[in-house]
Amino acid sequence: MRLPASLVRSGLLALCLAPGPAPAADYVATGDARLDFSSSYEGEAFEGRFRRFEARIAFDPDAPQSCRFEVRIALASADTGLPERDDMLMEREFFDVGRQPMAYYRADRCRALPDGGFVAEGRLGLRGVERPVPLCFRWIPGESPVLEGEAGVDRLAFGVGTGDWADTDLIPAEVAIRTRVPLRRAGD
């Protein structure tokens, strides 16, 4: 069966004009964003935060597979409230900020979880080492959405805490990461 040319042309035109999937909205972190970490030293818990980081996130909760996360972290901005510990974190055995002042987190694949949350299948780059680090997060929608997430990072996999500091009786291998990122549309 042969279709009339006008029908074929109108069908092709309709396909060309049909909207595709909407791109994920592009957001940047506001000044209220937090990137916190917690660990312990000789059994005494401590918390800290990175005071300077940039986050650019493209995310649509209805199409999480199209996500994109780009986060840059100024390691020298680590603040645990104890200057002596903060100074030590800057040294070669820990963050080595003289050689590697920035860390990054990148993800271009997210998926929905059964509980309504999401996971970003991202990679953390720290001290010249890159490893997968999944970030479990909640997306709080709105005019200015908020991303709240948690991850666990094996510090030893990135060479953080070398020499005597590699002893997990002193400092556990796993560092807990928490983030709360209020967002605004990029360009606003």
Automatic annotation (TrEMBL):
Keyword Signal: yes
UniProt xrefs under SUPFAM superfamilies: YceI-like
Domain Lipid/polyisoprenoid-binding YceI-like: 26-184
Pfam families: YceI
InterPro entries per the UniProt record, alphabetical: Lipid/polyisoprenoid-bd_YceI, TTHA0802/YceI-like_sf
Annotated signal peptide: 1-24
Keyword annotations of the record: Signal
Alphabetical list of Gene3D superfamilies matching this protein: Lipid/polyisoprenoid-binding, YceI-like
Signal as UniProt keyword: yes
Domain of life, source organism: Bacteria
Name of this chain's protein: YceI family protein
